[in-house]
Design a protein that fits this description.
The chain is an alpha+beta fold and about 575 residues long. It has 4 domains: about 60 residues; about 150 residues, no CATH class; about 90 residues; about 250 residues, Orthogonal Bundle (MetI-like fold), CATH 1.10.3720. About 60% of the residues lie in helices and about 15% in strands. Helix 7 packs antiparallel against helix 8, helix 11 packs across helix 13 and helix 17 packs antiparallel against helix 18. The termini are far apart. The relative contact order is 0.08.
Length: about 575
C-alpha cells in the first residue's frame, strides 16, 4: 500500500508543473486567441500601410506647388549651378569614378567611409542645357549661396527658367530690369498674358467656329454627291450654296485673322531678356512668361499667393510642356463625364439582370451556371475588355453607325474609332458583374414577409417589386454602384484602346450642335498619371505632377463615392422602419 501511494505521489509530482502550462495552451487554442492576435495584427498592418500610402501621396501632392528657394552652388571647378533642391540621397562611388577625382576629393570620400551625399537640383533652362535636373555631390561643392535676385520664371514653352532678368523691351524700348519698379513689371506681364489669351480665344473659338462651319458646308456637298450623284440638280445647287456661304465665312475669317495678327504684332514689341547663372542669355516674348518671382526674396504671404495661383491654374487650365506643367481641366472633365456615363449604363443593366435572376428566373442548374459566369466575369483582366470594346463597339458598332449616318465623313471615322461613349460602355461591361452581385444580395435581403404582405393586399408581382422590394433594396444597389464607380474611375488599361488620349484638343461638350459629342476622344486622370510618369521626356520633371494628379484622382473618387454613400444612407433611414 505504501509502495502504491509513493508511486502515485511521485507521478503527481512529476506532472504537476507541466499540467497548468498544457491546460493554459489548450484554453488559448480553444478560444482562438493566437488566431485572434494574428488577425488583429494583420488588420493593423494593413491599416498602417494604407494610411502610410495615403499620407505619402497627400504630403507630396500638397507640397508640390509650394515655391522653394533657389540655391547657387559654386563647384570646385569654378562652374556654378543654380536651381531648386529637389531631393537628396547617398551613394557609393565605384573605382572608376574614384580614380577620376582629385586626391582631396578621394580623401573626403574615404573619411565618410566611402559614401557620398548628393543633391538633385531643378536647374530648368532646358532649351539651354538640354536637361531639367542635375546631381551635385558634396565633394564637388566649394560654396553655396541664395542670392535675392535669383528668379524662378515659368514659361509657356521650354519649362522653367532659373536665373536673372537682364532687361525688358517694352514697346521696342529697352529698359534695364533694375530701373523698372516691380509694379510696372507685374502690370506689363499681366497685360502681355491678356494679349496671349485674346489671341488664343480668337484662333480657337471664333476662327474655330468659322472652320467648323466651312467643314459643315464641305460635308453637305459630299452628302449631296453620295445621295444624288455628281450630275444631279440637287448636287449643283448644294455646291453653289456652299460656295456662297464659304465666301462669306472666308471674309469673316480674314477679319478675325487680321485682328489676331494685329495683336501679335503688338505683342512682339514686348520681350524680356533672361540670363542664366553661367552668363548665357535667352530672349523670349513677355507673353510667354506665365509666372515669375524672386525665389529667395519671398515672405510667407507671397509664397501663399504663388501656391494658390498654381493650384488655380492646375484646376482650371490645359496642360503645357508635354503635360508636365499647367493644368488638367480636360482630364478632370473627361474622368467625371466618363464615370457618370458608365454609371448611367451599368445601373439599369445590372439591376434588371439581378431582378430577373432573383425574382423571375426559375432557380435551377441554368441559373446557377449564369451566376457562376457572372462571378467569373469579375475576374477577367481589364485589358481583355479593352480589346473587346475596340473590336465590337468601335470597329463593328461604330463602323456601322458611320456607314449608315455619316457616310459623307468617310474614310475619316466618326464613331468608328475610340471615343468617350465606347469607353463608358467598355467600363460598364467591366463593372456590371459587381452591380449584379450586389443587387442580387440586396434583393435577397428583403424579408419575404414584406413581399407576402404586398401580395396579400392585392398588388401584382411587378407592383410589389417596383413599390416595395426595389425601394428596400436600393441601399444595397447603391453599394454595388459605389464599388463600380471606384473601380471604373481608376481603370486605365482598357481606356488606352477605346478613347483616351495624351492631349484632347476638344472637350466632349462645346457650343456646336449637337453640343454633346460622345464620339470624341478624351483625357483621363489615370492615363495622365501614366503618361506623365512613364512616357514624358523626363520622368523626374513629371514626378511632381504625378503626385498632385494622383491626389486629385483620389479626391474625385472620394467625392463621387461620398455622394453615393450619402444617398444610400438617406435611403436606409427612409426604409429602416420597414426592414426586418
Amino acid at each position: 500500500m505504501s509502495t502504491l501511494n509513493t508511486s502515485t505521489l511521485a507521478l503527481a509530482q512529476d506532472e504537476s508543473p507541466a499540467r497548468p502550462v498544457r491546460r493554459f495552451t489548450a484554453d488559448l487554442s480553444a478560444v482562438g486567441e493566437p488566431a485572434l492576435w494574428g488577425f488583429g495584427g494583420a488588420l493593423a498592418l494593413g491599416i498602417i500601410l494604407i494610411c502610410g500610402f495615403l499620407l505619402f501621396i497627400f504630403w507630396n501632392g500638397v507640397t508640390t506647388f509650394w515655391p522653394r528657394p533657389v540655391a547657387v552652388v559654386t563647384l570646385t571647378s569654378g562652374a556654378k549651378v543654380a536651381g531648386e533642391a529637389s531631393r537628396h540621397n547617398v551613394f557609393r562611388p565605384d573605382s572608376s569614378l574614384l580614380e577620376s577625382l582629385k586626391p582631396a576629393e578621394r580623401e573626403q570620400i574615404r573619411a565618410a567611409d566611402g559614401y557620398v551625399n548628393r543633391t538633385m537640383y531643378r536647374i530648368g533652362n532646358y532649351d539651354l542645357y538640354n536637361e531639367d535636373f542635375r546631381w551635385v555631390s558634396d565633394y564637388e561643392v566649394q560654396s553655396q549661396d541664395w542670392p535675392r535676385d535669383m528668379f524662378f520664371i515659368e514659361r509657356q514653352e521650354w519649362g522653367a527658367f532659373v536665373g536673372h532678368i537682364r532687361k525688358l523691351i517694352l514697346d521696342n524700348e529697352e529698359h534695364a530690369f533694375a530701373s523698372l519698379p516691380r509694379a510696372r513689371l507685374d502690370d506689363e506681364q499681366a497685360a502681355a498674358r491678356e494679349r496671349f489669351d485674346e489671341i488664343r480665344r480668337i484662333e480657337r473659338d471664333e476662327i474655330g467656329k468659322i472652320n467648323h462651319q466651312i467643314e459643315a458646308q464641305r460635308l453637305a456637298v459630299r452628302k449631296a454627291e453620295l445621295a444624288h450623284g455628281l450630275e444631279s440638280t440637287e448636287y449643283r445647287d448644294q455646291v453653289n450654296a456652299a460656295q456662297l456661304r464659304i465666301a462669306e465665312l472666308q471674309k469673316d475669317y480674314e477679319v478675325l485673322q487680321a485682328k489676331a495678327n494685329q495683336i501679335k504684332d503688338t505683342d512682339a514689341r514686348y520681350r524680356v531678356v533672361l540670363e542664366e547663372i553661367g552668363g548665357g542669355t535667352k530672349e523670349t516674348g513677355l507673353s510667354q512668361v506665365v509666372r515669375f518671382y524672386a525665389a529667395n526674396d519671398l515672405g510667407f504671404f507671397a509664397k501663399l499667393g504663388i501656391y494658390l495661383s498654381r493650384w488655380g491654374e492646375f484646376l482650371s487650365s490645359e496642360p503645357r510642356e508635354a503635360n508636365t506643367e499647367g493644368g488638367i481641366l480636360p482630364a478632370i472633365f473627361g474622368t467625371v463625364t466618363m464615370t457618370l456615363l458608365m454609371v448611367l449604363v451599368v445601373a439599369p443593366f445590372g439591376v434588371i439582370t439581378a431582378l430577373y435572376l432573383r425574382e423571375y428566373a426559375k432557380q435551377g442548374r441554368l441559373v446557377a451556371v449564369v451566376r457562376i459566369a457572372v462571378n467569373n466575369l469579375a475576374g477577367v483582366p481589364s485589358i481583355v475588355y479593352g480589346v473587346f470594346g475596340l473590336g465590337f463597339f468601335a470597329y463593328t458598332l461604330g463602323g456601322g453607325i458611320d456607314a449608315l449616318f455619316f457616310p459623307e465623313r468617310l474614310p475619316s471615322p466618326t464613331f468608328g474609332t475610340g471615343g468617350i461613349l465606347w469607353s463608358a460602355l467598355t467600363l460598364a461591361l467591366l463593372t456590371v458583374p459587381v452591380v449584379i452581385v450586389a443587387s442580387e444580395e440586396a434583393l435577397a435581403a428583403v424579408p419575404r414577409s414584406i413581399r407576402e404582405g404586398s401580395l396579400a393586399c392585392g398588388a401584382s408581382k411587378w407592383q410589389t417589386i417596383r413599390s416595395v422590394v426595389l425601394p428596400h433594396a436600393l441601399p444595397g444597389v447603391m453599394t454595388g454602384l459605389i464599388l463600380a464607380m471606384a473601380r471604373g474611375a481608376g481603370e486605365v488599361a482598357p481606356l488606352m484602346l477605346v478613347g483616351v488620349v495624351k492631349l484632347a484638343p476638344e472637350l466632349p461638350v462645346d457650343g456646336f450642335f449637337p453640343f454633346v459629342h460622345l464620339e470624341r476622344s478624351f483625357m483621363h486622370l489615370g492615363f495622365h498619371i501614366f503618361d506623365v510618369g512613364f512616357q514624358s521626356r523626363n520622368s523626374e520633371a513629371g514626378k511632381p505632377m504625378v503626385f498632385v494628379t494622383t491626389l486629385l484622382l483620389l479626391g474625385l473618387i472620394v467625392l463621387m463615392n461620398s455622394s453615393a454613400i450619402y444617398i444610400r444612407n438617406r435611403l436606409k433611414k427612409k426604409f429602416v422602419g420597414n426592414q426586418f
